[in-house]
Write a structure and sequence with these properties.
- With about 290 residues, the chain is α/β, with parallel strands linked by helices.
- The protein folds into two domains: about 200 residues, Aminopeptidase, CATH 3.40.630.10; about 70 residues, N-terminal domain of TfIIb.
- The chain is about 25% helix and about 25% strand.
- The longest helix has 23 residues.
- The structure holds zinc ion.
- The site of zinc ion has 4 residues, from loops.
């Protein structure tokens, strides 16, 4: 039973869709059909939002490991994480049954539901969302146990993220906003059905899920400067199969660098602006059935 649900926007202060959805639902109320759900509406990083930046000092969405929460770190987001953990969690012994944290990406990932576990609940959620929103992508990040992630949503007993793009930082696009709203509503529809006991795994068709592989870096020279950019054929091709020998980068002297692997992969977070400093060009994924 999901007795308490927290919907969160503004974990990153320049990702406007979730912020706007929280504001609109605060002002006008949630759609009537969700009146039986107990949903809190939260803006996580108000200072970053006011400054229209992802974060002020440290990435808030990496502060929620047990180690980080226990550290005596005086960075703004580290302290904010402790406050949010009190409010939503505490992590590991949470008063919140489900945290839904809403993000935007500058990558063309459409509406993506990020799940961190593959237990019965999350299989049902993934299948339900894909069934009722066929354009949705489901991304699974289970490379480590749920509670080892540093994500804000792990303050809940269960936690998921909604990641929608492509949208530039600080910009609100109608198409991206509407996808965000639809995915949030479908997720809450699932919560209603789950609480009513009307969900069974077998009644929902199995769905394609992209399982996170690894990050791929831009090629750099000895001084750390990039020697290539994302190839035009890869740009905006998030979750489309990338086959061996297909180009991934175009060097600044006009040569193609190809995908040197034995197998296809499903790139995503392609050219994500927030990963600029990390020099991450994209992440890989395998396609599995859940
Ligand atoms: Zn984000």
């Amino acid at each position: 039973m999901l007795n308490s649900i927290a919907l969160v926007g503004g974990t990153h202060g320049n990702e406007t869709s979730g912020i706007q959805l929280v504001r609109n639902w605060r002002q006008h109320g949630l759609p009537q059909r969700f009146s039986d759900l107990n949903v809190s509406l939260n803006i996580a990083n108000k200072e970053a939002l006011a400054a229209n930046v992802r974060f002020l000092e440290q990435d808030l969405n990496r502060q929620f490991t047990f180690d980080a929460l226990a550290e005596n770190n005086i960075a703004k987001e580290a302290m904010l994480a402790k406050t949010l953990n009190e409010q939503l969690g505490p992590k590991g012994n949470s008063k919140t049954d489900l945290v839904i944290d809403i993000h935007n990406t500058t990558s063309a990932m459409g509406a993506t539901l990020i799940i961190l576990e593959t237990d019965e609940f999350h299989i049902q959620l993934a299948r339900y969302v894909k069934h009722h929103m066929p354009e949705a992508n489901i991304l699974l990040e289970d490379e480590k146990p749920y509670l080892e992630h540093g994500y804000l949503c792990t303050t809940g007993k269960k936690g998921v993220m909604i990641e929608v793009g492509a949208q530039p930082q600080g910009v609100l696009r109608e198409d991206v906003y509407l996808l965000t709203q639809t995915m949030a509503e479908v997720t809450l529809d699932f919560c209603m059905a789950y609480n009513e006991g009307s969900i069974t795994t077998d009644a929902l068709p199995p769905c394609d899920v992209f399982r996170l592989g690894e990050n791929v870096s831009f090629p750099l020279d000895e001084e750390g400067y990039r020697t290539a950019m994302v190839h035009h054929s890869l740009q905006d091709a998030d979750f489309k199969p990338l086959l061996p020998e297909q180009p991934v980068f175009r060097t600044f002297d006009g040569k193609d660098i190809v995908w040197e692997s034995d197998s296809e992969t499903y790139p995503h977070f392609i050219n994500e602006a927030a990963y600029f400093k990390l020099n991450v060009a994209f992440a890989t994924a395998d396609r599995i059935i859940l």
